[in-house]
Amino acid sequence: MKYAFIFFLFAMTCVFAQENKVSKDIDSLYKEDQFYAGVTYNLLGMMPEKLSQSGFSLGFQIGFIKDMPINKSRNVAVGIGLGFSANSFNQNLLVNKDNMGKFTYSILEDSNTYTKNKFSNYLIEVPIEFRWRTSTPTDYSFWRIYTGFKFGYVLAQGSKYNGDLGRFKYNKNDDFNSFQYGLTLSAGYNTWNIYFYYALNPIFSKDAQLNGADIDMNAIKIGLMFYML
């Protein structure tokens, strides 16, 4: 997550540099919002009984979207892109291994017995958006509503625990779903935009069992999205 945060700060620098840029050229065939960077607070939906989140779970995302206007005034467009995201989830689901090397899952009911318990993932993402905005060839500050779908492939994932049971970390766990996909919404004015993502499939596959039942919880992300040309 450290390197993802550094990359995110670099992207933010580019965003605010772009905001202060003034162009004298008028382009009647203009396009908007080719690059994006965002920060989110990550939640877990449909959590099993007694499972809860703790601490602050962060997510970062950056990427490029090809903006393709579909009307004459160019304020309605379709966008398709490629990006990267890094996400962490602090919670009380213990991911461990038994004597046979098989992953096991249990609930940590006493938060005083551990100082860290989280899982993380890193994804290559393909966002597809329907885009509406109030932009013109000469107006660089405008309202926007972008809604769509995001498909992600998990490049890497892992879990970490520090507590009374010891310190252990697992980086390769096939019980995590390799693909994540969900609905997205960005809305706002100029640089600042509210962002929402709701995953349509679980974080874990059906091979992950908690007390004999599937772990069907999904990812929900709420945060801010920043756009630049």
Task: Write down the Rg.
Answer: 20 Å
Largest sheet: 8 strands, antiparallel, barrel
End-to-end separation in angstroms reads 26 Å
Q: What helical percentage do the residues reach?
A: under 10%
Please indicate the count of domains.
Answer: 1
Spatial arrangement of strands, main beta sheet: 1-2-3-6-7-9-10-13
Mean pLDDT: 90
Low-confidence blocks of residues: 20-24
Number of strands: 13
Order of helices and strands: HEEEEEEEEEEEEE
Characterization of the model:
This protein has 229 residues and is mainly β. It has one domain (2-20, 37-228). It has one helix at 2-19; strands at 35-45, 58-69, 76-90, 93-97, 103-107, 114-133, 143-163, 166-170, 179-189, 192-199, 209-210, 213-214, 218-228. Strands 1-2-3-6-7-9-10-13 form an eight-stranded antiparallel β-barrel. It has a two-stranded antiparallel ribbon with strand order 4-5. It is elongated and about 65 Å long. The two termini are 26 Å apart. The model is unreliable at 20-24 (pLDDT under 50). Keywords: Signal. This is Porin family protein. It comes from Flaviramulus aquimarinus. Residues 16-204 form the Outer membrane protein beta-barrel domain.
Short description:
The protein contains 1 helix and 13 strands, in the order αβββββββββββββ. By secondary structure, it is mainly β.
Summary tags:
mainly beta, 8-stranded antiparallel beta barrel, 1 helix, Porin family protein, signal, Beta-barrel_OMP_2
List strands and helices in order, with pairings.
Blueprint: H1 2-19, E1 35-45, E2 58-69, E3 76-90, E4 93-97, E5 103-107, E6 114-133, E7 143-163, E8 166-170, E9 179-189, E10 192-199, E11 209-210, E12 213-214, E13 218-228
Antiparallel strand pairs: 1-2, 1-13, 2-3, 3-6, 4-5, 6-7, 7-8, 7-9, 9-10, 10-13, 11-12
